[in-house]
Amino acid sequence: MSPPTAPGSVDFRLPPELEASEPPEARGLARDAVRLMVSRPDGGVAHARFRDLPRFLEPGDLLVVNTSGTMKAALDAGREDGAPLELRLSTRLPAGLWTVELRRPAGGATEPFVGGSAGEVLSLPGGGKATLHARYRHAGGAESPRLWVATLELPASLAEYLERHGRPIRYGYVGEEWPIGYYRTAYATEDGSAEMPSAGRAFTPEVITRLVACGVQVAPLVLHTGVSSLESDEPPYEEFYRVPPETARLANAAREAGGRVVAVGTTVVRALETASDGRGVVHPGEGWTGLVVTPERGVRAVDALITGLHEPRSSHLAMLEAVAGRERLQEAYVEALKERYLWHEFGDMHLILRF
After folding, report:
1. pLDDT band at 4 (very low <50, low <70, confident <90, very high)
2. Are 136 and 147 contacting, i.e. CB atoms less than 8 angstroms apart?
């Protein structure tokens, strides 16, 4: 791995063959049979399978999961001149607005489409329409090169419409389309994510049962994830979150008793850190969070993290560095590359323990 090239980032070359191109089930593996790399609190890396997770957690730990379900968020769209596009729903905003991403066909995949104009109306399947209003602006005021604020006019409810006309968001490294069930976690309760909160994909009822039997508690929250194609230095954008009162209570009680709050995914870290105060006390709440967790900010409410493997220089890696520290994260990614771990939503998993 080459040294980091920007503050809060880890830079390396990801070989294409390490991009998981299909679900593990297509490779003959159960969901919980993917590999698990464990970054130990005292240094060093252990290798296991995800179903071994109970070995690395302890009675009194609290596992916090994101119960947001994945939508069929990709839709065919057309411009007035007939040019084909793909419209990806990202984040539902107040007042009936959406943040959407436009992409255009590129071989067997798509690439960001930076065109479009305010007031333009795109045709959607089944008589639907999407009206572009303005470029999305990040919390710091920067205008996104590829996201729009838009309204939708649909002939049916959103759920019915997406079930009929939508499909899961797919990137070029995934060679074919897979049914929506492959993009949903075992514990999803309400649809709302453009893309799967993929850190939870490897959980099965059996793994959860074994964790609970070992004295690990499980608590839910919601963070509806937007499109994740904003790798390579683009700042994150606002996403909707909800931390229930009981989850806040359990998180605070676990830490008071000496247990660890284990976040399942960067989405859970973002929600918990948004809802915590400067002392790390978690408060219930909901809304849209624009929080960016960096090494400079650090983490206050999270003691461990279960996550996938992330692309070079992404904001997710800055968050991981906030949890693990630069040196330990570098060590883990060197090890993951050497041991041929698989990246992305259908890939392998990484457990980072702070203590």
Report:
1. very low
2. yes
Beta strand 129-137 with 143-153 is: antiparallel
Phi/psi of residue 135, each to 5°? -65, 140
Cα–Cα distance between 296 and 280 in angstroms, integer?
16
The Cα 100–Cα 87 span in angstroms is 7
Beta-bridge partner residues of 111? 104
| Dist CA 289 CA 224 (whole Å) | 11
- Residue in the structure block whose two tokens are 């203590």: 355
Structure tokens at 204: 């099965």
Interval 324-346 mean pLDDT: 96
Distances (CA, A) of 184 to 140, 178, 239: 32, 11, 19
| Model pTM score | 0.94
Give the mean pLDDT of the chain: 93
Dist. CA 170–CA 25, nearest whole Å: 17
Token representation of residue 136:
């999305």
Contacts of 304 (CB under 8 A, 6+ apart): 61, 260, 261, 262, 263, 323, 351, 352, 353, 354
Give the burial string for 162-195 (b: 16+ CB within 10 Å, else e): beebbbbbbeebbeeebebebbbbbbbeebbbbb
56-60's contacts with Cβ under 8 Å and 24+ in sequence apart are 56/351, 56/353, 57/211, 57/214, 57/216, 57/260, 57/262, 58/215, 58/216, 58/259, 58/260, 59/214, 59/215, 59/216, 59/259, 60/215, 60/216, 60/254, 60/257, 60/258, 60/259, 60/260
**Burial letters 271-305, b for 16+ CB under 10 A, else e:** bbbbbbeeebebeeebebbebbbbbeeebbbbbbb
The per-residue pLDDT for range 95-129, each reduced to its tens digit, is: 999 999 999 998 878 899 999 999 999 999 999 99
